[in-house]
Amino acid sequence: AQSVTQLGSHVSVSEGALVLLRCNYSSSVPPYLFWYVQYPNQGLQLLLKYTSAATLVKGINGFEAEFKKSETSFHLTKPSAHMSDAAEYFCAVFRAGSYQLTFGKGTKLSVIP
Amino acid sequence: GAVVSQHPSRVICKSGTSVKIECRSLDFQATTMFWYRQFPKQSLMLMATSNEGSKATYEQGVEKDKFLINHASLTLSTLTVTSAHPEDSSFYICSARRGGYNEQFFGPGTRLTVL
Question: What residues of A are in contact with residue B104 (Cβ under 8 Å)?
């Protein structure tokens, strides 16, 4: 079964520093992978998605992620953190043969001024 | 495009009453809609998947008689929490899949508080 694991429930970075949020996947088939952001009391906004095209995926708000099959990883990065990036981030994967999503447990990103 | 709305955004009800939450795709036809619940500081858990005109498919452990889902049109799905209890208090989020697109579009969520 498809699943994702997010390493680190809470990550703190200084404003202007590199953001790295980790996600590893487990899948018996080529996965479709997603990163979402959630602000307090709001729904989810898609940051980016991997759909077996380019392994380096660029998303909104300066975020990008690289699909590494050898490491079964899909880590999210941003070169320079902004205060507005403080939020909860979820990695997710489509279940095989469906459009149902399985989410990781989430990583809360704090940005220190 | 691909906007999903939910109504209400916040609801407080008494224990034992029923609450209906609406999920609408505003500018597209949704072949499939999904309902999730999210407890504080936790991830989203899929409750059920519904296709227009069909019965919803519920995830294991979700009581279908308690969480009634109706997907009567390609733009509207409703979740009714029947005989609500305090433990049903949660953040309920819907999403919709647009035909031909390999992603889900999420609504803003509904905060349910059962007293």
Answer: 99, 101
**Local structure of A107: helix, strand or coil:** strand
Reading the block at residue A107, the tokens are 């990583």
**pLDDT category, B53, cuts 50, 70, 90?**
confident
Q: Inter-chain contact A100–B34, Cβ cutoff 8 Å?
A: yes
Q: Tell me the pLDDT tens digit for each residue of A39-86.
A: 988 889 999 999 877 899 999 999 999 999 999 999 999 999 999 999
Residue B104: which pLDDT band, with cuts at 50, 70 and 90?
Answer: very high
A-B Cβ pairs (cutoff 8 Å, strict): 50
First-to-last alpha carbon distance for chain B, in angstroms, is 37
E strands in chain A? 3-7, 10-14, 19-26, 33-38, 44-50, 56-58, 64-68, 73-78, 87-94, 101-103, 107-112
Distance from CA of A16 to the nearest CA of B (A): 26
